[in-house]
Amino acid sequence: MKILVLEAGTKERSLIQNAVEKSGHEMLLGESAEQALSLLQAGETRFVIADSEFGGLQEPDLLRRFRSATSQPVYVLVIGSGDGDLTEADDTLYKPLAASELRARIMIGQRFLSLGDSLSHARDQIENMAVYDGLTGLMNRGAFYRTAQGELERARRSASSLSLIALDLDNFKALNERYGLETGDEVLKVISQTIREKSRPYDCIGRWTGDEFVIALPGVIGADAEKITDRIIKGIRSSNITYQEAVLNVSVSAGIASASNIGAATEVEPLIQQARQAMARAKEGGGNQVNLTYV
Fold it and tell me: How many distinct helices (H) and strands (E) make up the chain?
């Protein structure tokens, strides 16, 4: 695999190159953010390691442009220096760099890309089957359950972690009653698209029931799962949803069930229900917030 590196520091660049090559990959040295986009569009690479202080990386929506440059999943590992680092990254590693930790993160990124490829292949195979929700285009309940079960089995075999997120719109019933079911459906479509955009390309996303959505996050627990959830919630809150020129203020409550020690007795259904219970607690706390539970 070719890994594109955007790093101006000689010492860090040398360390990254050593880690990339010892991991069995080839390093492509990028000179600018625009060159990185060109290489991604050409299919030369799908893995980017970038210093947050590298020229051009602070451009708004740049990482989103990285991901939209190709139809295949793109993984971005940011080398950060503290506050203000890029929040849209798939992973962040802080200076000073440790070679062993960098190699471990490269391995994780490679696995995520592999999972993304497997999921894309699976989606191609089942495209003609009734697995997608007709309104939102997300996986329906049954398809999500089966896919999440597969993610759990992979996590069990690799002694990895898994988090389940449950999201539910606040006061959706009142919105339907005030603006009508058609407007409610349009809101669900916008919310679904926002969840897709704010999630990682290899995450498993489904519509569970009504205005409730579920997401499986392989390899993520605790605070990292909260960061992804917060990103989704903020994206939904800032979505431009209107009805007859009136802006609709839409918010969601979210619950997370994080499992770090996945044993033989761990099953998907209890994880989903624990995430939904955590979501209910978030609603009881006033909504528009996240509740995290470890299992």
Answer: 9, 12
Q: What's the average model confidence in pLDDT over 164-181?
A: 93
Residue matched to tokens 């990285």: 66
Residue entry with tokens 């962040």: 92
Name the phi and psi angles at 156, rounded to 5.
Answer: -65, -45
- Can you name the CATH fold of 141-294? Alpha-Beta Plaits (3.30.70)
Q: How do residues 31-64 score in pLDDT, each as one tens digit?
A: 888 898 899 999 999 999 999 888 877 776 788 8
Q: What is the pLDDT of residue 129?
A: 58
Do residues 105 and 49 lie in contact, with contact meaning Cβ atoms separated by under 8 Å? no
Q: Identify the band that residue 125 occupies on the pLDDT scale cut at 50, 70 and 90.
A: low
How far apart, in whole angstroms, are the C-alpha atoms of residue 210 and residue 37?
A: 38
* pLDDT for 128: 47
Q: What's the angle, vertex CA 68, arms to CA 102 and CA 191, rounded to 5? A: 105
Homologous superfamily of 2-114: Response regulator (3.40.50.2300)
> Active-site residues: which are they?
211
Report CA-CA distances (Å) from 138 to 67, 178, 208. 19, 26, 10
Angle at 235 (CA atoms; ends 234, 237), nearest 5 degrees: 60
E strands in 190-269: 204-209, 212-218, 242-243, 246-247, 252-259
- Whether omega before 96 lies within 30 degrees of 0, making that bond cis, reads yes
Mean pLDDT of the chain: 89
Break the chain into its structural domains and give their ranges: 2-114, 141-294
